[in-house]
């Protein structure tokens, strides 16, 4: 479990760094002078792959820990359904979900702009990359938070 906690701490730090970078303006020197439609597609595919990997890695472990808590507390199936909700949905996860929705909306708009542009906008591609990274980092932070809550409950 120590490795996971180390990963979680690193993930939370990466999230904080991503937020700082997202707020910083992009310097003109950082914007590539040329980019292609394929560059836009690779940014999206890379982030989508990271999200898939994050979910496929964390969901089974999280579900296993929820079942462990169910067994530890001797909950019936109906009790489990009711008592597990706070571990996946609370005020803080709602903020993560709202941030995710906002990022997805912005990403969809940017993707539409990029796809409809007569020539690729490299600054837009760079902004898309930042938003996609923020999306992955937001989901990572949500997993870290949910695992921390569940681990704390299992420790009781």
Main beta-sheet annotation: none
First-to-last CA distance: 17 Å
- Overall shape: elongated
- Helix-strand category: mainly alpha
Structurally, the number of domains stands at: 1
Q: Rg to the nearest angstrom? A: 19 Å
Integer average pLDDT? 80
What low-confidence regions span 5 or more consecutive residues with pLDDT below 50? 1-29
> Which percent band covers the strand fraction?
under 5%
Short description:
The chain is mostly helical and 156 residues long.
Describe this structure as you would to a colleague.
This protein has 156 residues and is mainly alpha-helical. The chain has one domain. Helix content is 84%, strand content 0%. It has five helices and no strands. Helix 1 packs antiparallel against helix 5, helix 2 runs parallel beside helix 5 and helix 4 packs antiparallel against helix 5. The two termini are 17 Å apart. The N terminus is likely disordered.
Secondary structure topology:
Elements: H1 2-23, H2 37-73, H3 77-88, H4 91-116, H5 122-155
Helix pairs in contact: 1-5, 2-5, 4-5
What are the defining features of this structure?
elongated, mainly alpha, disordered N terminus, 156 residues
